[in-house]
Structure formats: C-alpha cells, structure tokens
Write a structure and sequence with these properties.
flat; mainly beta; 2 domains; 19 strands; 5-stranded antiparallel β-sheet; 38% strand; single chain
Length: 352
C-alpha cells in the first residue's frame, strides 16, 4: 500500500497545476472593463463644457484648420481678440503733431458692430488704445491746418483668417501717421472737362475757357495707343501731353500744393507704367498727373480714363496770379476766369 504513495502525490500535483493553468487562461480571455471619458452635454450648467480642438499641422493649412474649428465652437471669437494699439502723429518734416484728434473705429461684438474710441496725441505726438477687444481697427487723425495722408495704411486686422496673420502693436515702435501741414490757401480756378480723342489725333485744350480745339489752348494731347483689356490679353494705353507754351512735368506728390519752379519740358508721355501720385493705384484708372507752367499761370492737373474708351476726364486747378501756390481755399474755388478776376479785383490781398 505504501508503494502507491508516490503515484498519488504525482497525480495530485498534476491536477493542481492543471487547475491553476485553466483559471489563468479564463481570466485572460475575459474582456477588460474600460471607463469612457466624461462627455458633457453642450449647454449643461452642472459641469464645464469640454472643447476638443484638433492639433494643427505645420504651416498655414494647419492654422486655418484650427481657426475653422474654433469658429464652429465660437462664431464671435475673432471679434473678441484683445486689442492694443500705439501710434504717433508727425508732419512732413518728421516733427511731432501734438493735440491731434484721433478716432478709432473697432469692429467688435457690439450691437452696432463697431465701437468708436477717441484720443488726443501728446506733446510728442504719441497716442494709444488699450484694454478693448475686437477684430479690425481703423485709425483717423485730424487737426485744423493739417491733411492726413491717404497713401498710408490706417487699417489693422487683429485676426485675419485668410492669411493667418495677427497684427501686433509695439509701444516701443509705434505706427507713424504723416500729416501734411498746410500753408496759405489761395483762390483758384477749378474745372473738369470730358475730352474726346481718336487714336493718332491731336486735341488742343484751352484750360482758361474750358474749351477744346481752340487756337489759344495752352495744352495739347495726342492718343498714342488705346486697346481695351480683354480676357487673356493685356490692354495698352498711352498719351502724349504737350505744353503749347512754357513747359510740363510729372506730378507725383499726394499733396500738390506748390508747383515746381524748374524742371519743365515740352512734353511727357503718360502710360500704364508712367510716374503717378501715391494714391493713384486705388483709382482704377490709367492716365497720370502733371504740372503745367504757362504765361497764364501754373496748373496742377490729372487725366483719367479706361483703356479702349474714346474720351478722357481732364480735371485741374489753375492759379492765374502767377504764384506757384496751388493749395486751394475750399471756399474760394471758381469755375471760370471771369468770376475769378471779379473776386480778385475786390480782394487783392487774397492773391498770394
């Protein structure tokens, strides 16, 4: 009987190992219980809403993807961007302009969609706007006796989805706004003519009397090229402008308030790429601006048209007094020489 003890012990050990192996395999085959992340209903007041945003890839596409997702979560987000702006008003000589009136127009989430803020430049021309929120800021500066440049940028986008750029203002390097300090304003003749011209034809213009094809005209124009813009083809346009007396030269200033004393030539050619004032690029016209010097005084003029059109607009200021001063007094603009002469005869001191 004692001889069977080793066999019995071996069988018990084998059974125990088998039971342990079976229980282990069963536990491993059972599904693991996973606790899901907490999902908060949109608009729930019991717990904060969790906003999951996709991490953008490198580059502009990733920024746009991120911004589009943020917009879906909060459509007014862009109009809630913190805005800080620092600027400085200076004149044409770089000198500070103090006590200038500054108006800020900020696109925001207000009922009107725009909120206006006001400030004044200090003794050194500095001004600022801080502690507000919005998207696009426009800045306008005025002061009696000054002109604000329209050639400079005055609009700043604090959130531009198209480019992904965000404007940031630095108090150490404020945006500079140039104001042109005015001088003595004078009475002038102001007029505008619609002139018809054919290709290769010369037209003589009498500026003093507002007539064309006059033998006493001070200016003559010749249309050299006039092909309209078409799909798949660029248009062409050019015109020769000549002085019948005196001389002519390009005018490229934003504020043509003083005609040059010298530098005049018999004629100039206006074209698509000829010299133009800095604000011309937004006009949508071809043509150009010029000064004319004649025995009858100085003229500041511009020609505007569209390629392919059979006419052009000629607008000008004329100072018949012989002075080079072309800064107009808005209350003393005359449409013909007779009315100008009547006023000057009664107010000789007005002619400078």
């Amino acid at each position: 009987m004692q001889k069977n003890h080793p066999v019995i012990l071996f069988l018990v050990l084998l059974f125990t190992l088998g039971a342990v192996w079976w229980l282990t395999r069963r536990k491993a085959s059972e599904p693991t219980s996973v606790v899901p992340p907490l999902a908060t209903a949109q608009g729930s007041s019991n717990s904060p809403q969790v906003l999951a945003l996709t991490v953008p890839s490198n580059g502009l596409d990733g920024i746009r993807q991120r911004d589009e997702e943020r917009l879906k979560l909060d459509s007014a987000r862009w109009w809630k961007t913190p805005v800080s702006f620092y600027g400085r008003a200076i004149d044409q000589n770089g000198e500070p302009v103090s006590q200038a009136d500054v108006k800020f127009e900020l696109n925001d989430t207000s009922v009107k969609g725009t909120t206006d803020y006001y400030a004044k430049s200090d003794a050194n021309g500095f001004f600022s706007l801080t502690g507000v929120k919005g998207k696009n800021l426009s800045v306008y500066i005025t002061k009696t006796g000054y002109y604000q440049s329209r050639a400079e940028n005055n609009s700043f986008d604090y959130y531009d989805i198209a480019s992904g750029n965000q404007y940031k203002s630095d108090g150490r390097h404020p945006e500079e706004f140039h104001l042109r300090k005015g001088g003595e304003k004078v009475p002038l003749i102001k007029s505008e003519l619609q002139v018809h011209a054919k290709l290769g034809e010369t037209v003589i213009v009498d500026l003093l009397n507002g007539r064309t094809n006059s033998p006493n005209g001070q200016l003559q124009v010749e249309l050299l090229a006039n092909e309209p813009f078409r799909r798949g083809a660029n248009g062409t346009w050019s015109m020769r402008v000549s002085a019948n007396e005196g001389g002519i030269q390009f005018q490229t200033e934003e504020f043509p308030f003083m005609a040059p004393e010298s530098g005049y030539q018999p004629s100039i050619d206006l074209g698509l790429n000829s010299e133009k004032p800095p604000t011309w690029k937004d006009s949508g016209y071809v043509g150009g601006a010029f000064y004319l010097k004649s025995h009858s005084g100085y003229v500041s003029a511009k020609i505007q048209t569209i390629p392919g059109k059979s006419s052009f607009r000629l607008s000008y200021y004329w100072n018949p007094s012989g002075s080079r001063n072309m800064e107009p007094d808005p209350n003393l603009l005359f449409d013909n020489l007779d009315s100008y002469n009547i006023y000057v005869a009664e107010h000789a001191q007005a002619v400078k």
